């Protein structure tokens, strides 16, 4: 099925040999599903991060702290919006509808 889909959606005129294109595409798919690809990418990331941050930690720089705070904020807000965002928006919508009904019934005043 994958080969049929790839043959159907292959760009015309860009590859002179369709077998080469299929082999290249299948090797790309193989890289996506091979755990070694992700392991090597992770080890490269750890090595480059270590090479970047180790001198900053040793010199007492505040840059790693700011980077960690930024990463924490991005992860926190992304997770919060992803997992709770829809429920929070629905609750706010329900609250706004309830307040509008209350104001229609009792009037809207700034005093208690």
Secondary-structure map:
Layout: H1 2-9, H2 18-33, H3 35-59, H4 63-106
Task: Please bin the fraction of helical residues.
Answer: over 70%
Q: N-to-C SSE series? A: HHHH
Radius of gyration: 27 Å
Overall strand count: 0
Envelope shape? flat
Largest sheet: none
Q: What number is the mean pLDDT?
A: 82
Structure class: mainly alpha
Q: Tally the helices: what do you get?
A: 4
**Distance N terminus to C terminus?**
68 Å
Strand content: under 5%
The poorly predicted ranges are 1-8
Description:
With 112 residues, the chain is mainly alpha-helical. Helices cover 83% and strands 0% of the residues. The radius of gyration is 27 Å and the shape is flat. It contains 4 helices and no strands. The longest helix is centred in the last third of the chain and has 44 residues.
Give a summary of the structure in a few sentences.
With 112 residues, the chain is mostly helical.
Output the keywords.
112 residues; mainly alpha; flat
